Amino acid sequence: MWLVGLLVEAALFGAYPFVGGFAGFLAVVTALAVVDAATGVARQVYSINVLRPEERVTALAYQRSALNVGFGLGAVISGVVLALDTVPAYRGMVWFNAAMMLVTAIFVRRLPAVPRATRTAEKTSRLAVLTDRPFVAVSLLSGLLSAHGTLYLVVLPLWVLSHTDAPRTLIAMLVLLNTILAVLLQVRASRGAETVPGAGRALRAGGLLIALFCLILPISTLTGGAATIAVLVVAAVVLTLAELVQSAGAWGITSTLPPAEHRGAYVGAFRLGGQLQYLAAPAGLTALGVGTGGWGWLPMAALFAVAAVAAVPLVGWAARRPRLGEPVGTPVPVAATPVS
To answer: What's the pLDDT band for 128 if we cut at 50, 70, 90?
Structure first.
């Protein structure tokens, strides 16, 4: 699925320059979203299956660090293209990206196969994972806490532009700061999230850091000059740390709780929480934080603090309940079970 998804993504991305209207654009971007979701699940499931339990979270952290290096290189390339500002340059950038997907597909094709997990005789619906209410609850909670991305890339820039005297160029510098910190600290921040209790604590730490960010950021509207920049940098660092530990907690959950034979369905279900966040958070958090003039950050901080406090007991509840295909009374997993 990972390989096929990359090939389809390359074809769809390469089709962008041929789109001449909104309907065509909507069709391509919707198809890309669906294929990207499936490819992301396949990539994560493969990574979990191919590695030893104690290596999984660390490996996913290295993947995230590499991804942030890619973001930095992409920013440089896009900056050059914007400076050229020609149609051939824009088309070339799109086709270059499609070509890189094909190159990635070649590497994926060379990866070793992983033995399939032994399946039980009893067949279950692909949607049966949604009946695992504790796991779905953890998914929704983690999805809420993944709003750090929306806060950093959508709400924070709008706040800087509309409620502070900071220069516009600071927004780009804050994005660069996030990328650098993610590359340098993601692996270190992921330590301890390899177990179910550790993953729960990581989610809690992420939520508390987001709440702290919501309390620090409004101070920037009361300051001026260098003080404003200092407050914004501190807020950005706090939110980046929230991203690092929350991501580690999410990887810990998907590496430990899903049973091997239903891992794809569980990882897919877990990512639903993040997709719902992408759907609701940009408008909701912008209206609450930026649209209120500042007082909305207080209830937002309370929301993330409550989510943080609920993280550990909610993860513990999910761990005590049997997964699909597991008998009642299955012991709480400490780390992911290797595929046999």
So the answer is: confident
Task: List the structure tokens of 62.
Answer: 């290295």
Tokens read off for 37: 């979701």
Single-letter amino acid code for the residue at 283:
A
For each of the domains in the chain, give its residue range(s) and CATH number, in order of start.
Answer: 1-113 (no CATH), 130-340 (1.20.1250.20)
Tens digits of per-residue pLDDT, 302-311? 999 999 999 9
Query: Half-sphere exposure of 30 toward its Cβ, with a 13 Å CA cutoff?
Result: 6
Alpha-carbon span 166 to 268, nearest angstrom? 40
Which of 242, 233, 267 is CA-nearest to residue 253? 267
**Per residue in 246-267, pLDDT tens?**
999 999 999 988 888 888 889 9
d(CA 180, CA 177): 5
Q: How far apart are CA 192 and CA 252, in angstroms?
A: 9
